[in-house]
């Protein structure tokens, strides 16, 4: 159950961070305006809180593992929202990152 909770929190964090950054990108680079930027800043603030709900108490471990989720999530966001088509090297890199997440977060540890 803790692993499932952790995975859901990683997905929520990725959605908030990547979505927030995308909103700021749209607001600034695509000239959609300050409301888009403000929504992005709010989403990034939500991301900052989501990680605090992870069951592991080690900030460094959570953030390090989340980096791998961010990489894979960014590629997925690009596919779903921007029409990006990753090549095999993008997908291989994302898979390696997610393997790193699994090792960092869910490998058995001694007491």
TrEMBL record:
Membrane topology value: Multi-pass membrane protein
Keywords: Cell membrane, Membrane, Transmembrane, Transmembrane helix
Cross-referenced InterPro entries: EmrE-like (IPR037185), UPF0060 (IPR003844)
Keyword Phosphoprotein appears in the UniProt entry: no
Transmembrane segments: 7-28, 34-53, 60-79, 91-108
Pfam families: UPF0060
Superkingdom of origin organism: Bacteria
Sequence similarity: Belongs to the UPF0060 family.
Designated name of the protein: YnfA family protein
Species per Swiss-Prot/TrEMBL record: Micromonospora antibiotica
């Amino acid at each position: 159950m803790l692993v499932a909770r952790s995975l859901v929190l990683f997905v929520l964090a990725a959605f908030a961070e990547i979505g927030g950054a995308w909103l700021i990108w749209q607001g600034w680079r695509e000239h959609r305006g300050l409301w888009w930027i403000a929504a992005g800043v709010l989403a990034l603030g939500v991301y900052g809180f989501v990680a605090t709900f992870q069951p592991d108490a080690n900030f460094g471990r959570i953030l390090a593992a989340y980096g791998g989720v961010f990489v894979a999530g960014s590629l997925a966001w690009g596919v779903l929202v921007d029409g990006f088509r990753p090549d095999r090297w993008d997908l291989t890199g994302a898979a390696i990152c997610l393997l790193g997440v699994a090792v960092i977060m869910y490998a058995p540890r001694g007491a």
